[in-house]
Write a structure and sequence with these properties.
Radius of gyration: 29 Å
Number of strands: 5
CATH class of the largest domain: Alpha Beta
Distance between the termini: 68 Å
CATH architecture of the largest domain: 2-Layer Sandwich
Length: 327
């Protein structure tokens, strides 16, 4: 990038002061809660450099002001999350960029406005182009961030933070594709929480929700980072375990059972909730989602029928007759 000279060089050297002036304008129209959420470390790191990006773009001639480098685009994108936890939108972003532009216009006016009105007008025109490029990059980052949030919400159970039925369906379909193509085995574990209705009836749904969140925490503690935990609804959960055989998945089920026994606490003088787990594996019980889920579901009901507080069952492998019936 071409080095800036004259008044623009003085603006470049004043980037810290200009960043402070912009932050003051930001705080002036923010509530106390919004001020608390401002990521001051990010502002101190990125905004002075962002101002330098704008000033240097103004000093260039014949270039495309919207052709930001990757590093500049990343700094511009930081404006999209400048309000921290607040659910800011495109209008907030536009106001923030406009405030930054106002701070720079005032600095330009102080440097060259009265001494050379034409140079001032030309500089403001370049400034509009440069800040437009920053806003475009920040807006693109905002749209991508919102899209990721919506995608996450569509695949997440809001109570437990685990995946939901949609996430499970996508995950098991992907694992089935991988198994058919590369032969990678995987396991499906279905979990049913026994006694949740009793907790809801005796203590209310808030207590039942706490149990469900404890179940989710226990599942996270017992599973690997590559495993996918999901809540299918009510008191039923599932774990997809890549690269697990039927035998190793049974060990995983035992580990989950132990973790839930430690994690789930209803209250003093209350009988503990139980857990029934059914285990099925691909390809032993099928290479499509439906037969795998059905096999794990049957095994789960076998476990539940045992009457034990914590029980698990492994689905029986289909015999030759069952395989012939499929074909």
């Amino acid at each position: 990038m071409t080095p800036v000279r004259g008044p623009l060089a003085r603006l470049d050297r004043s980037r810290d002061e200009l960043a402070k002036a912009w932050l003051v304008r930001l705080i002036e129209r923010a509530s106390l809660d919004e001020i608390r959420e401002l990521p001051t470390d990010r502002i101190a790191r990125d905004v002075p450099e962002l101002i330098a990006d704008i000033v240097r773009a103004m000093g260039e001639t014949g270039g495309d002001p919207y052709a930001l480098t990757e590093e500049q685009a990343e700094r511009a994108a930081s404006l999209a999350g400048i309000r921290g936890g607040r659910d800011a939108g495109a209008a907030d972003l536009a106001r923030d960029v406009a405030a930054l532009q106002t701070v720079l216009v005032r600095a330009l006016r102080a440097e060259i406005g009265e001494s050379d009105p034409k140079a001032f007008a030309d500089a403001v025109e370049s400034l509009v182009d440069a800040t437009g490029a920053i806003q475009a990059a920040a807006s693109e980052a905002l749209v991508k961030s919102r899209s990721r949030e919506l995608e996450s919400q569509a695949n997440t159970d809001p109570l437990t933070g685990l995946g939901n039925l949609r996430a499970l369906q996508r995950g098991i379909a992907s694992l089935c594709d991988m198994q058919r193509r590369y032969g990678h085995p995987f396991a499906v574990l279905l979990l049913d929480i026994d006694g949740l209705k009793r907790v809801n009836d005796a203590h209310g749904h808030a207590a039942g929700d706490r149990v469900l969140m404890q179940v989710a925490m226990g599942m996270r503690r017992a599973t690997r980072s590559v495993d996918t935990g999901a809540r299918l609804g009510g008191d039923e959960f599932c774990v997809l375990a890549p690269a697990q055989t039927l035998k190793s998945a049974a060990v995983l089920a035992e580990r989950i059972s132990a973790a839930l026994g430690d994690e789930v606490v209803v209250g003093p003088d209350e009988p503990p909730v139980g857990t029934s787990i059914g285990v099925a594996a691909c390809p032993e019980h099928g290479t499509d989602p439906e037969p795998l889920i059905e096999a794990a579901d049957r095994a789960m009901y076998v476990a539940k029928a045992s009457g034990e507080r914590v029980s698990l069952a492994v689905a029986a492998e289909p015999g030759p007759m069952a395989e012939e019936a499929k074909t």
